[in-house]
């Protein structure tokens, strides 16, 4: 994106992959909830886990660089110095699973179909494309609208190329359980809706020997089994119903696997990473009149006692989130630099004054559970916003209406974090309830923004760009199914997003993202949660993996089945699973 590639022309494989890894075996993983579709590119339905294994894109990423792309379906990339267009030349060898070649017509059809019928993300992501056309037998050219959008050539390389001859006979904008045609390393082998889906490695995969793929996709089978909730999934892992789990629940990490690990049945590792965590927190739905007052949003943040929660519920494993781009150099810290001030000054009066004067810090406590001082400050802010307590209930001074809202959760696992928060809210006189619906209802409510408050988890990359429009822009706030669940609609933030997209150097990008970060933080769109800069890994010791872990963290697609380890494990357990 901004400098030299880590891998020069003629490289043989990514350094975090083992090009001599053996092929074979099965990797079983868990998924939570259900699935009802094999089309992951539309807003409807719940797509099956792992469905991306059947598709290839024009370019692919390396996991030890912030933002670099290498040829996959495309054998070459051309672009001018001003990046006003990009052209990809397809490989002659690229084939669909039915043997037909991947063509320029497939690329053009995929682009138009995804923009017109796909998830709203695609319309936001590729809004800068003016036209796409065939420019040779295997060459496709994308021309861009006026403006400075330097990452467009790279993100167009992420375009999932779909087979026109397959989809033109079907309704692309509808969910489907017909196994679709792909060009990737795997195809759907078998499935049962809502129960499991299994992918078989294609022995004749056209791209198996490409440098970007050597040492990848070593398992003959990837299988995903679905479980009702996290508790059931944890017990299933301990019973050897599947092989590997990335644990995201601190209580489980600390207590659930103790005998299994101590007796050698399971392995447990904390694998550090340097990837941009993004953010997580209790997000407000700004479409609700209740949360449109910034003072109300700030006040409610004082009711979340992170220090007590971390100490008593999460075994002290976490750090507090203080950025929308946590765990990387993009996170804003301290006061704005001179370069940031050049960006922020033209927005003065349209963004919070604290952006210029104060480093953002979420409310703190001593961890004792005694938060009277925090609740007192919350009461002051609420009073300034027109709310006062009467007969033990927080009421709007003008209308007399009580403050009442619901916290929507996707999983029962978050209830233990949320319920102490609600107790503190009740001490402020707020009538708050918690609801955890089934997976399908939760997704429907999120897609249609039918919630008051919910846990928002937003992952970010180390090179933010066009996707920021879908996360925070005024346009995405109006588009059902977008990732702007909180409904952020600020002209100042819209301007900052465009500056991020137009960054010409890495230094410019870091400065602009930090400026955006400060404005997001000081508008109190969410009550920040917590993070850990590592992957918590629990697995059965029947696998091999490369010695090098990329900066992005675990690359499970580079693991392989180790028959000798599997035999030792079976012998230690007395034979049989």
Write the topology of this structure.
Layout: E1 26-32, E2 59-61, E3 69-71, E4 74-78, E5 85-90, H1 104-117, H2 120-125, E6 129-134, E7 139-144, H3 152-156, H4 164-167, E8 186-192, E9 196-201, E10 221-227, H5 230-238, E11 244-246, H6 250-256, H7 258-262, E12 267-272, E13 279-284, H8 294-301, H9 306-313, E14 319-320, H10 338-344, H11 354-357, H12 372-384, E15 387-390, E16 393-396, E17 404-408, H13 415-427, E18 431-435, H14 439-447, E19 453-458, H15 467-472, H16 474-477, H17 491-501, H18 506-522, E20 526-528, E21 530-531, E22 534-539, E23 543-544, E24 560-561, H19 563-572
Parallel strand pairs: 1-10, 17-18, 17-19
Antiparallel strand pairs: 2-3, 4-5, 5-7, 6-7, 8-9, 9-10, 11-22, 12-22, 13-19, 13-20, 14-21, 15-16, 23-24
Just name the CATH architecture of the largest domain.
Roll
CATH 4th-level superfamily of the largest domain: Dipeptide-binding Protein, Domain 3
Domain count: 3
Q: What is the CATH topology of the largest domain? A: Dipeptide-binding Protein, domain 3
Please summarize the sheet with the most strands.
5 strands, mixed
Number of alpha- plus pi-helical segments: 19
Sheet-strand content, in percent, reads 15-25%
According to DSSP, the number of beta strands is 24
Helicity, in percent?
A: 25-40%
What structural class do the secondary elements suggest? alpha+beta
Identify the overall geometry.
globular
Distance between the termini: 47 Å
Average of the residue pLDDT scores:
95
Using the CA coordinates, give the radius of gyration: 25 Å
Q: Regions with pLDDT < 50 over 5+ consecutive residues?
A: none
Order of strands across the biggest sheet? 18-17-19-13-20
């Amino acid at each position: 994106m901004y400098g030299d590639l880590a891998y020069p022309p003629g490289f043989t494989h990514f350094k975090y992959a083992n090009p001599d890894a053996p092929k074979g075996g099965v990797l079983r993983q868990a998924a939570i909830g259900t699935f009802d579709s094999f089309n992951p590119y539309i807003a409807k339905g719940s797509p099956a886990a792992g469905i991306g294994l059947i598709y290839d894109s024009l370019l692919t990423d390396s996991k030890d660089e912030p933002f670099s792309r290498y040829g996959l379906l495309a054998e070459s990339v051309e672009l001018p110095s001003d990046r006003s267009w990009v052209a990809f030349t397809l490989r002659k060898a690229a084939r669909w699973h039915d043997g037909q070649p991947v063509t320029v017509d497939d690329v053009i059809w995929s682009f138009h179909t995804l923009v017109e019928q796909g998830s709203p993300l695609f319309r936001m992501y590729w809004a800068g494309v003016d036209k796409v056309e065939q420019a040779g037998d295997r060459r496709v050219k994308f021309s861009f609208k006026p403006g400075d959008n330097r990452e467009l050539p790279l993100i167009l390389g992420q375009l999932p190329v779909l087979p026109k001859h397959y989809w033109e006979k079907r309704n692309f904008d509808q969910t489907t359980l017909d196994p679709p045609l792909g060009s990737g390393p795997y195809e759907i082998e078998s499935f049962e809706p809502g129960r499991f889906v299994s992918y078989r490695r294609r022995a004749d995969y056209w791209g198996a020997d490409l440098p970007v793929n050597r040492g990848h996709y070593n398992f003959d089978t990837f299988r995903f089994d679905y479980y009702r909730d996290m508790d059931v999934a944890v017990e299933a892992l301990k019973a050897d119903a599947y092989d590997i789990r990335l644990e995201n629940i601190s209580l489980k990490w600390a207590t659930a696997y103790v005998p299994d690990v101590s007796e050698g049945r399971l392995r447990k590792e904390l694998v550090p990473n340097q990837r941009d965590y993004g953010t997580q927190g209790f997000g407000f739905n700004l479409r609700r009149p209740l949360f449109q007052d910034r003072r109300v949003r700030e006040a409610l943040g004082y009711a979340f006692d992170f220090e007590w929660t971390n100490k008593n519920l999460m075994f002290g494993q976490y750090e507090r989130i203080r950025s929308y781009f946590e765990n990387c150099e993009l996170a804003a810290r301290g006061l704005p630099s001179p370069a940031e001030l050049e960006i922020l000054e033209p927005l003065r009066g349209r963004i919070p004054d604290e952006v210029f004067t104060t480093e953002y810090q979420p409310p703190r406590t001593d961890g004792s559970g005694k938060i009277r001082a925090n609740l007192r400050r919350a009461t002051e802010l609420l009073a300034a916003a027109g709310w006062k307590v009467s007969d033990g209930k927080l009421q709007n001074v003008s209308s007399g209406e009580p403050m009442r809202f619901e916290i929507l959760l996707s999983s029962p696992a978050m209830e233990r974090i949320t319920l102490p928060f609600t107790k503190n809210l009740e001490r402020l006189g707020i009538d708050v309830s918690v609801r955890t619906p089934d997976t399908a209802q939760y997704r429907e409510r999120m897609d249609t923004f039918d919630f008051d408050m919910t846990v928002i988890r937003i992952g970010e990359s180390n090179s933010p760009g066009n996707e920021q429009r879908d996360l925070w822009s005024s346009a995405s706030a109006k588009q059902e199914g977008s990732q702007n669940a909180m409904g952020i609609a600020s002209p100042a933030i819209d301007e900052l997003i465009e500056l991020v997209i137009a960054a010409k150097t890495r230094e410019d990008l870091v400065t602009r993202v930090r400026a955006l970060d400060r404005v997001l933080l000081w508008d109190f769109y969410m009550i920040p949660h917590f993070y850990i800069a590592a992957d918590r890994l629990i697995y059965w010791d029947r696998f091999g993996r490369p010695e090098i872990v990329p900066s992005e963290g675990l690359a499970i697609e580079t693991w392989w089945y180790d028959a000798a380890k599997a035999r030792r494990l079976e012998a230690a357990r007395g034979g049989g699973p």
